[in-house]
Amino acid sequence: MPTASERLSDVLEVLSQEPAGLSVMEVAESLSMSRAATFRLLNLMVDSSLLEKEPSGHYRIAFRLWSMTAVALRRLPLMDVSLLPMSDGVRCSGHTIILGVNRGLETYFLRKVEMVHDYVLASVTGHRSPVNVTATGKAILAFESDETRSVVLADALPKLTPLSLSGDALALDLQKIRERGYAVNYGEGQIDARGIAVPVFDSRRRPIAGIGTSVPFSGIEADVLPVLQQVSNSISRALGYLATDPLNLP
Length: 250
Fold this sequence. Notes:
7-stranded antiparallel sheet; Arc Repressor Mutant, subunit A; alpha+beta; Beta-Lactamase; two-stranded antiparallel sheet
């Protein structure tokens, strides 16, 4: 049976997908809980300022929680040092560039920088994907410790398209990524999507993030790879990475 903290996390997960909020019954059905237990939990979260209750009776995540999360995210050193290099990369390449991190079996995309008309715009995305179906996730995973990779490879990773990789096939792909220094995604998350990404390292030579972009199926990765590598190099150096070798080498 899920613990109280797990139930609280589940409620936030469900409501994060529904900005307009959900009723008690809708939350109960989503979490397979009784209406009475759901009602008690939701109102406890309202009392704790985690949720807000609308006049309609719907519950949604409180603006206080959104604000706290946004402030905490902005204060991450990674977010602080990545904005300028990503913006420069967008200006040089014209490609939208994304920043992602791996947590467990998922990749969380923290920032997207894109060119809109003549302006470079940065936004927080909050999007996430299974770690095995994006170039960004694989670029990070490939340079993780053997132990971390083994844990991920042993899991039953989702197969979102016929091209999604797992098990031995994913292990082989990760080896190729380590050898060449970047990851590609050919329809593994979405059948019509193609991407390329490189890892970002910190002062302890850990792959703490990935920098990636989408490329058309008719495009050539080599056209944008040097830009991604330069962005990654700049962020890594700002985080204290002092290697003398280029970061695209394992």
